[in-house]
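Collaboration report, partner site 2.

Our partner group contributed sequences for two proteins of shared interest, and the home lab folded both. The records are reproduced in the order in which they were received, starting with the first partner submission.
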Amino acid sequence: MTVVAVVVAMMFLAGVALALHTRSFVRRAVRVRARIVDRDWNRSRSLGPFQPKATRYTVEFKDSNGRVQRVPLRTGIGESIHETLTAGDGLLPILYDPRNPAAAQVDAAGPLYVVPVYLCAPAVLLLVFIAYVRIAY
């Protein structure tokens, strides 16, 4: 039981650390609208009659110095990014660090915080369960 508690606590701490890192990135990042200029298609899965899904996007935007940046997005949301997040103008909201424009990410809560939530939520539930079991027995 102690080993499980340690593993769960480490999951929680990793989730908190990732959330704090993401929050720090969001605070120093610049918000811009980017145009999707390239897609890498995932052809490794057999999708039958369906079209292959894009899994990695390259976007183009002007940074705060007016230079055009062309960078791959650091995101794991893949498939429906274009249809879901682009506005009527076809531009995608992104965040980039002015010190490192290549570290662009989609400006949406889901892609930014999905990993910290997946680490923290089960950890909190398991810690509550472990605490309940220790108190009840």
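Second partner submission, folded after the first:
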Amino acid sequence: MTTDNDPLNEDLTMLDTSFPLLAGDIYDLKVNKAELMTNDAGTVKLELSTTQPAKSNKGEDLSTGTKVFTNVNTNPTGKSTLEMVKRSVASIIQASQLGTKTLNEFKGAVKTLEGKVLRARVIIEPEGTGKDGVFRKARNGVAEWIKQ
């Protein structure tokens, strides 16, 4: 027997399928996962989550643990020059107080980021087709790591 209150009978054709996005702001983010990839760019993939409840870009309440994903290259490739890579990695080293001083030390210590809380300015990256030709929905990204 089904009733109008049964959530399994909800009309899904009109349901908002967008993923909730954090409003652009400064957040303390816990590093849940940090992984150094073996690609040419030496990409460090970071899975982060909020440490406090937050608001979405639509004003909705979001619980602690809202996810943010970001990547950082540790090797120069394409348009990423060595100077750009060094500045990007330096900002994470300084914000995390990781204790590493060089790019090579950072690469060896990526896993030790896990569990650390970093302060970051989070932005909304608009939807669109990337340089790789893949269409992506709007998503959160880290624009800046902030020293604490």
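Feedback sent to the partner group on the second submission included the following. The CA atoms of residues 22 and 67 lie 9 Å apart. The chain has one domain: 25-146.
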